[in-house]
Design goal:
Helix 9 links the parallel strand 11 and strand 12. This protein has two domains: about 220 residues, 3-Layer(aba) Sandwich (Rossmann fold); about 270 residues, Ribokinase (UDP-N-acetylmuramoyl-L-alanine:D-glutamate ligase). The relative contact order is 0.09. The chain has 17 helices and 18 strands. It is about 40% helix and about 15% strand. It has about 500 residues and is of the alpha/beta class. The chain starts with a strand and ends with a helix.
Length: about 500
């Protein structure tokens, strides 16, 4: 699914109206019908619905929903914020139909003290500002937004929480943004939904299809996408009857140190579960027995040093390399790590202590092999690329970093973003909070290593690996609970994730 800017979405709306053809009003009716269907499934008639509308088309959506809810015997009230002398044509038509077809109370609010009394079980529908807002909410709108946020009522925002911008909120007023429990957005998620600091505003967001022009969507370019199962339908390799292990690659996992052999075990088990043909684990000498006992399917190449990684021979013999989980940052290990970077013939995924080593030796970034996959969490990324004030700036920093060093950056978060050197960014749709657990990143490293070894491009290996990793975590959470997930649960459900993904095509 593509992610567009608000300006692009407006243009796609206009193309749909011209080419379908359909009137703007009827397109609004279509959108309101989708809002209604969601509302009917979510809330019963015992709860009063208070719809707050502004003067634009977002307010028009709210008026249309209010009318449809009233016709379905919901107890509805509409409160119009008089923040402009003008209303949109679609707003006027919906206001007229609301008056003609229902007895819904319509109250104009021009002062803060006109706000109604709320009941604890009221549902407040936010239809004040849509995604076209370009400056922070102020005056009466800000006052009402702040009051709504203090009610404790369930809040449903239409299109986007009022006051939130669709992309960059760096200059916005955080106190003048609706804090919704649900955000019902149309056709596409907004870019700002991908950033952690905005989660308190969007709550759970749901994308509702409204039948915008497929040709307009396909012909409108954007660097951003939201990865779902159908996105990957043409990317997965299909195993054939006469295939053998040599076809699926031989990878090397460089991992572990004294007290951190668990990282090596998790990465290795994940690689094997992700379909790698052969796996060799280069581990400290003392870790040899551990890796051969815990992962008998893998081969072991013990280091001459018993506690740390000190040298890594034979790199060119492998189809892909994963390095970093649990290796530490000893100076000797750093030198060995550098030797891997200087060999540019094999695709590499770097995680954990490998990233920390890069943070300590930022000049080494310039010698990364082409399209190396880096898998940092926020702090690891900041050590390499510097701090960012907000999610949007961090995204721009990530894009610049990928371009500068010709690498793939997998920036781990709720919607993990995978950036490519050409400026494209894929946001992941799978995963859950239970996956914030020790070893989860080591599992992802092993999975991406396995995909690289099988011949997937670095971009595809990263995107598919992240999606399957999150999906395996989701399956684990369904079986037990997000609260109880451990990294091994993710590994044990990789096969189920493959099965579910392939079954969805």
């Amino acid at each position: 699914m593509k992610i567009f800017t608000c300006a692009q979405i407006k243009e796609i709306d206009e193309i749909t109206i011209r080419t379908e053809p359909i009137s703007s009003f009827n397109l609004m009716e279509r959108a309101a019908g989708q809002l209604l269907l969601w509302y009917l499934k979510t809330f019963d008639r015992a709860r009063r619905v208070l719809v707050f509308v502004g003067p634009g088309n977002n307010g028009g959506d709210g008026l249309a929903l209010a009318r449809m809810l009233a016709l379905n015997r919901y107890n509805v009230g509409v409160y119009y914020l008089v923040i402009s002398e003008r209303t949109s044509p679609e707003w006027k038509l919906n206001h007229q139909k609301l008056r003609q077809e229902t007895n819904v109370p319509f109250i104009s609010i021009s002062r803060r003290d006109q706000i109604p009394d709320f009941r604890p079980d009221d549902v407040l529908v936010d239809a004040v500002f849509g995604s076209g807002l370009t400056r922070p909410a102020g005056g009466l709108a800000s006052d009402i937004i702040r009051l709504i946020n203090q009610t404790g009522c369930t809040v449903v925002s239409i299109d986007i929480p009022s006051g939130l911008f669709g992309e960059d909120n760096g200059q916005n007023d955080p106190e003048s943004i609706i804090m919704a429990d649900y955000t019902l957005t149309f056709q596409f998620p907004r870019l700002s939904f991908m950033f952690a600091e905005n989660a308190k505003y969007t709550g759970e967001w749901i994308v509702l299809p409204i039948g915008l022009s497929n040709s307009a969507i396909n012909n409108t370019e954007t660097p951003y996408s939201f990865v779902q199962a159908d996105t990957l339908s043409t990317s997965l390799k299909i195993r054939k009857r006469f295939d053998h292990k040599g076809i699926y690659g031989h990878g090397m996992l460089i991992a572990g140190s004294g007290g951190k052999m668990g990282a090596a075990v998790l990465g290795a088990r994940a690689a094997m579960r992700t379909g790698i043909g052969l796996l060799t684990c280069h581990v400290p000498g003392a870790g040899n027995q551990i890796i051969q006992t815990c992962v008998p399917e893998a081969m072991s190449q013990p280091d001459s040093n018993s506690e740390i990684i000190s040298e890594i021979p034979g790199i060119t013999l492998f189809d892909a390399i994963g390095i970093g989980p649990g290796i530490g940052t000893d100076p000797v290990t750093q030198k060995a790590f550098q030797s891997v970077l200087l060999n540019r013939s094999v695709p590499i995924v770097i995680d954990a202590d490998g990233l920390n080593i890069l943070g300590l030796n930022d000049k080494w970034l310039s010698v990364l092999p082409e399209k190396t996959v880096l898998t940092p969490h926020l702090k690891e990324f900041e050590r390499m690329a510097g701090k960012s004030d907000n999610g949007y700036m961090r995204l721009k920093n990530q894009i610049s970093f990928s371009a500068k060093y010709n690498c793939i950056v997998v920036l781990k978060s709720a919607f993990t973003s995978v950036s490519s050197p050409d400026g494209r960014v894929s946001f992941n749709s799978t995963g859950n909070p239970g996956m914030a657990t020790a070893g989860s990143g080591d599992v992802l490293t092993g999975m991406i290593l396995a995909l690289l070894a099988q011949g997937y491009s670095p971009e595809n290996a990263a995107v598919i690996g992240v999606y399957l990793h999150g999906l395996a975590g989701d399956i684990a959470a369904e079986k037990d609970s997000p609260d109880s997930i451990i990294a091994s649960d993710i590994i044990e459900n990789i096969g189920n994730a493959f099965k579910q993904l392939k079954g969805s095509f």
